[in-house]
Amino acid sequence: MRTALLALLLLAVCAPARAGFGTSDIGTSGAQFLKLGAGARAEGMGEAYTAVVDGPDAMYWNPAALTRLSAAHEATVMDSSLPAQINYGFLAYAQPLTQYGGIGTSLQYVTQPGIAETDSSGFNTGSTFHPSDLAASVGGAYKIHYEDGGVFNGASVGVTGKYIQSTITKTASTFGADIGFLSAPFKVLDRDFRFSYVAQNLGGQLRFQQLSDPLPTNLRLGSAWNLTRDWVFAADFNEPLDNAPYFAVGTEYTAHFDQASFSGRLGLNTRALGATGGLNGMSMGIGAKFRRIGMDYSFLTMGGLGVNHYVSVNFSF
Fold it and tell me: Potential cystine with 222: which of 41, 50, 94, 214 (Cβ 3.0-4.6 Å)?
């Protein structure tokens, strides 16, 4: 009964937002930095990641996956250089909490070079301002262990609460939340399969003087299919508040050795396909893990805006 209630609560929270999401809503939400992703591994797979994630970056992609941590303590640090000299970073820490749960915390931040301030006539005032954004989050997850729960037995649910702050010349702040679900693995064509459902950026609004902008709510339905022990294929379907629905697909192959493993990744994300001309939405990445430290690199094509590069370092201790 508790399992069913949790599932119904998740669907009830997400259902009202399903109608009316389309291209006519572009530009109607604030805190756009919350869409920037987290971790070079996820970006290399085109952000098809909500059912794949198994580390502290679950704080961004799916809080329910905090039950999949493999070490007593895990941390990740990512840095990314975006167009126009914008710098984006993500840091997260997570740890198991008994055999049925996990907790974590994370920080996202964006910094930009100074921008010359002008008056209402367009003349330079001699001053500069420095836009910036941040989101600080805490979260937890619980693995359902109820033998009569059917397909829900072994599944996980999670929630993240976040404080969001955005600065232009003035500062606005609000609170938001993510809610996630991750199934236990089950067999499809004799291979392990998982599915996930995540509602991101639910909650308040950023208010600058007289105007308020809602958070960029996004609903994600994800899947991960282990074709072999070392090869996974993933797909996510997204319904963002301020754009049309889009798909993300990705794959990862990992070669395991005695003291190390090496991974290659490919992905495609249709979110901005055709929006900036040229090759857009294709991603590729590599990764290596040596005992307690791992490193990942990926790049994402942005059409006429060039290429975004992502570097992550992951620690287990």
Answer: 50
Render pLDDT for 86-107 as a digit per residue (tens, 0 to 9).
899 999 999 998 888 999 999 9
Domain 2-115+128-316 falls in which CATH fold? Porin (2.40.160)
Domain positions in the chain are 2-115+128-316
Q: What is the pTM of this model?
A: 0.89
125 burial type by CB count under 10 A (0-12 exposed, 13-18 middle, 19+ buried): exposed
Phi, psi for residue 88 in degrees, rounded to 5? -125, 135
* Structure tokens belonging to residue 244: 């049309």
Paired tokens of 54: 């198994």
H-helix or E-strand spanning residue 256 = strand 246-256
- Contact call for residues 164 and 190 (beta carbons, < 8 A): no
- 19 CB contacts (<8 Å, ≥6 apart)? none
